[in-house]
C-alpha cells in the first residue's frame, strides 16, 4: 500500500457521514494496515493522563485504561516532542502495551518496536497516536517520516470528530446555548463504557442536566450513582457552583435536621455556635442526597417544604432563609414500596421523582465489564509498581460470564484482590503479570445466577455435632460477611439485603464478634 493510497482512505472517511467512534476506529485500522504492525492506538490528553479513544490490535480492556504520564515515560516523550518519535527495540523505557497486543493467546509478549506522534488540534496539544509491533525492525528509518506525512489527515479526522461532538451538544442544549451552560463539557473520564445501555444513559443525562427540576437516580448498590450525579452537575448551568454530597444513610436521626438545615447557637446541647447546613453550603449549586430512602419521616417533611418554596429554617430559629439549590437524589431501594409501607412520604416521592433515571446494572452492560476491568487493572498496576498487569483469555471469559451482584464496586474489589494475590504469590514486578480465573475468586462465576445451584442441591454441611446455637451463629456470621462484601462494606445496604433493621444488624454483629 502506498502512502498516497492510505491518505486517500483517510480523506474519504472525512467526507463520509460516519459516527465518530466508527471514523476513529477506521482511522486506526487503516494505520495498522499501512504499517503492518501489531497494534495502533489513538489517545486523548486529559490533564495528566492519556485516554484511549480507538484501538486496533490491543486487548479488549485497553479502551478502559487510563495511562498516567508520570508512569509511562514513552508516552510522555511522544507527547513532548514535535513530529514522530521512534524507539529502538532495546529501549530501556517500559512500553505501556507490554502484554496487551492481541494475536498471541497465552503468550504475554513484550513490545519490541514502538513509534508514536503527538497530535495538535487548533494549536493545542490534543493527544497522541502510537504504533507497536512484537517483531524487531518493523519500523525502519523511513517509518517516522511516513507517519508525519499522514499527520494532517489524522488531525483532520480528530478535529472533525470534535466539531461533531460540539454541534451535537449545542443541539441537545438548544440553540443558542443558554447563558452559563457548558456547550461542550469535557467527557467525564471516570465514566467507562460503550454499551448501548450506557450510551443511552449518557444522552439522557445530557438532556436532563439543563433542567432545574429534581432528578432521582435509581439503581442497585455499586452501579456508580454518585458518579452519574457528578456528571449531571457538570453538564448543568450550575457546574461552576458547589456540588455538596450528603449520605443520608450515615446521618444519625438526632443530627439529620442540623446537618441539612443548620442550627442556631444553643439550639441543643453542644451547639456552641451558629452553623449553616448542607443546603446553605450548596446555595447556587447542587445538593446530592445519596440513599435518600433512609431519611427519617420527620426530616422528609422539612425537605419537602424546602423543595416546594426554596426556604430552609435553621434548627432553633424562627426566621426562614432562601436557598437556590437543585436537588439530585439517589436510592437503591424501591421508594414506591416504602410509600405503601408508610416509611416514605408519597408527596416527597412525587416531588423527587419528576424525572427518574435508572442506572443499568453491570450485568446488562455487555463488554463494558472488560473496559472497566482495564481501568482497574491500570490503577492497580501503578499502585503496586508493576511493569504490566493483564487478564488471561480465560479470565476475560470469566468476567463476562459472572452476574456481578455487587456491580462496578464488586468488580473493582475483585481486580484489586487478584492483583494483590498475584504479587503475594511471587509475581515478578518487572515482568508481565497475568491474572488467571482462580485469582479472581468469582463465586461460581462460570454460570448464570439461576444455574449456579442444581435443583435439589444441598448447601455445604455444617460441622458435625456442633451445638445448635453455634451453628446458627456461624450461619448468621457468614451471611453478614457475605452481604458486607457484596455491598462494599456498607452496613446500611447490607441490612437491606438481609431484610434487617440497620440498628438490629449492628447489635447482631457485635454479639457475633464482627464489630467491636
Oligomer: single chain
| Number of extended strands | 15
> What amount of the residues lies in strands?
5-15%
Percent range of helical residues = 40-55%
The order of strands across the largest sheet is: 3-2-1-6-5-4
Largest sheet: 6 strands, antiparallel
Tally the helices: what do you get? 19
List segments where confidence is low: pLDDT < 50 over at least 5 consecutive residues: 175-189, 445-465
C-alpha end-to-end distance: 70 Å
Average per-residue pLDDT, rounded, comes to 84
Q: What structural category characterises the helix and strand content?
A: alpha/beta
The Rg value, from CA coordinates, equals 27 Å
Global shape: globular
Q: What can you tell me about this protein's structure?
A:
- The chain has 516 residues and is α/β, with parallel strands linked by helices.
- 42% of the residues lie in helices and 15% in strands.
- The protein has helices spanning 3-15, 20-35, 73-80, 143-149, 151-173, 196-209, 225-235, 253-261, 278-281, 297-309, 335-341, 346-352, 368-384, 393-401, 407-424, 437-440, 468-486, 491-497, 502-511; strands spanning 39-46, 49-56, 67-68, 84-87, 113-121, 124-133, 215-218, 243-247, 286-290, 311-312, 321-322, 326-331, 356-358, 388-391, 432-435.
- The chain has a 6-stranded antiparallel sheet, sandwiched between helices.
- The longest helix has 23 residues, at 151-173.
- The model is unreliable at 175-189 and 445-465 (pLDDT under 50).
